[in-house]
């Protein structure tokens, strides 16, 4: 008789978003088959066994905000650089950090040939298929125009054929931002097709105006990026988007919320019963404005390594405010916003110097290594032209473990909710992902097993330990108190004791369904504020 299981995890402290218990996990055909206090000896005969030694056993991480293979070099007001990771290097980094599913972005642009969302998704998927992936993956679609025909005809195809149930919209960046009226168009279409709208909420005009003022005073060093995007830029934009979503009555998710002001607006909307969700990211709990001036001198271009948008908060008091929002449910999900740019690459962070400085006339714009580093020392850059984004898909879970779980700021269940279960529910993947459910429809056996706390020696991170294709980490030297010991994807051990075990083509594309958190908002269709019921009749 075939064994009941292919793989069994014993002596685990099994954690889900709701429960925690000492038990064993039995896996068969890539699915969770049984959870039990113990299995009979004869059931374990010939079966691969992992001894968790009392450590946490959790659903694999679902990172719902990852940029891979993305065209980010979209002009002076876009993100302005070349994405350093493809599906090979990015997914390798994900699995080494305990993540088993990533949702990446396929980007429409304003170019006529990129009008069709379907063609955009096909092109991005071809990039994923050309390398393969170590983890399961899907796409959000970024929409930067409001063509009625595309929204009407293509959104249903994205849902039906591709299982894409979320789109991202921008309130900043000249090449991406939509006006309020355009936002309403897309939100209205998204509502019709049960698509969740993800909002990049920063006020583009405030940022542009402040950037001009800073430049006029010669304040162009990387540090001033933070001053060009103060918390009120997120405060205004979250408020406005909440108002628009109230009119449309469709769920919105604010991506990468990094300010207490943004979080407070989200909290207020949630208290009113609106389907407003928020994502936050590790950089808002681990970096501050000081990190933008930590290399050598406040004006040093190397500080561009820390530039991301929105920027990290001013100081560590903000971290504490944000931890409260993490703990009390204001933040629905915790993603990496892995947006990788290299430092030693002319189309990475050095774009901030190479491509846009008038004094670069006559210089080699396509250099690497010593020549590039020499240029960065001799020439002034400007934060306006630095690509916005930092890497973090691999460090996401361990940073939250170190900073929030081990310190008692959140429970193990909350950790699972934020990093796996809620992203799976929000983006229509539950309970295939984000759960350890052994009853129909059942969960994929995607699991992360940590090291036992009592035997794990804290260590200081260096970039050489990571598996991405970026030549730095913002967390260089930081102490970590745990790290995923095993990462299991659909029953296959992909990462064990510091070694990559899986294969590049083990990851699969995942189709997603509609938002499964929406039903938590009972007043959603009651239109208590008398906004626009007639629109939906
Ligand atoms: N938005 C993102 O989602 N990632 C990086 C930078 C940005 O503006
Ligand atoms: Zn964004
Ligand atoms: Zn992002």
UniProtKB/TrEMBL annotation:
Regions of compositional bias (Basic and acidic residues) in chain numbering: 517-526
N6-carboxylysine: residues bearing it: 168
Enzyme class, broadest EC rank: hydrolase
Keyword entries, A-Z: Hydrolase, Metal-binding
Domain Amidohydrolase-related: start-end pairs: 56-493
Annotated EC: 3.5.2.2
Processing after translation: Carbamylation allows a single lysine to coordinate two divalent metal cations.
Cofactor(s) the protein needs: Zn(2+)
Database matches in Gene3D superfamilies: Metal-dependent hydrolases, Urease, subunit C, domain 1
Family the entry assigns: Belongs to the metallo-dependent hydrolases superfamily. Hydantoinase/dihydropyrimidinase family.
Protein name according to UniProt: dihydropyrimidinase
